[in-house]
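Hi D.,

Good news: the full-assembly prediction came through. Inputs first.
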Amino acid sequence: MANYYILHYNSNALHRRGARAILNNNSSKPIYVQIAHWIESEILNNHFQADQKVYSQYQLAEMYTINPATAAKGLNLLVDEKILYKKRGLGMFVTEDAKQIILNKRRNQTLKQLVDELVQEANRLHISKQELITMIQDANEEEVQT
Amino acid sequence: MKVIECSELTKSYNRKKVLNQLSFSIEENTITGLVGRNGAGKTTLLKIIAGYIKNTSGEVRVFSERSFNSLNVSGNSIFVDDQMSFPPALQLGELLGEAKRFYPNYDANLAKRLFDYFGFDEKAYHNRLSKGKTSTFNMIIGLASRCPLTIFDEPTTGMDEAVRKDFYRALLKDYIAHPRTIIISSHHVDEVEDILEDVLLINKGSKLLHLPIAEVKEWACGIKGNSETVLKLINNKEVLYQKEVGMNTLYAVVRKDSSGSGSIEEQAQLAGLEVTAVRSSDLFVHLTTEAKSKGGIDDVFNNY
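Then the structure:
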């Protein structure tokens, strides 16, 4: 089970191959959620700055070969979360606080869920608390070195 | 605006009901996928909508008119399948030119470009084309005619994978540039689902589901784990499919319901069970499998 969610959350769910992008049809998340997630990642990577225009539903539809209504649903999800705002007739733009909102969301939800699953899996494998902490520390050090 | 409205639509062939009390409507400028098993009544439904055949009872309204014998419906719609008939005396190049006379929005330039891209010969004849090439040519006519109501009945029959992919992308690109109402019936749900807005699932002539494709993924979930635990959890739930996988392990597909305490997924996760998403295509197969054979084809081979 743990594998399943990690597959989605490490943003491989939606990766780009050349000019065409690939969506993960097996993910437990609907396509529009994956679209929203990908735009969030683009904002986190500074590909979109505050008050900058993001892709339109038609551009997204074209990029990912998906129905424009599906793309619109993804964009509206971000509007609801105040990550994007609408300018009538002009398109969708990144809000001032977008990055902070995304960071908070991912910390509180995604990371917490991953940790929950990690702990569950560790319990199933009879790994002690201390062992688990050591493993995380080791992984962290490796990450810092690279 | 609703382009198609059906209410209690019924069609019988020799007293056998092929379509049974079908009611639904389709909005303008949407792409709808029509899904169902072999013999579910998909082609009959599409042909009634296109005005090719007459329904036995109930009502069908296309562009607010009865579709049968309607010049307005015929002029504004195209029905594409692998049996479209073209004058056998004309060469493919001539057919492309003639199509303009039948469809006012026909884009001859697009037709020619697609024609060349897919490697057709202007001097070839339609009735000598291979299965896949026939479908491809018909699809070109279907796209280029840009009819306000475009119906594709199994458009990808015989097409190879590369052509199918190209077709879906061409369809989507042209739809974005020139929005229109499109219905596609297909058995390749996995391939087509991304470009759909809505899905209409019919089984044995009745409507099973009609909802946005985005909601299909959230309609059911798969649960796997210890048989006893799974059975306890799915007791009094709507079970669509279940199968023994390995020692004392059960996989079940259950409909999600928002009522009650906590979602079924949360309950399953708390019980240490594996929760997975169900592919749309699998869900449709589960939904259209006979109630008495929840194990599918395996039941045929068990205990006989």
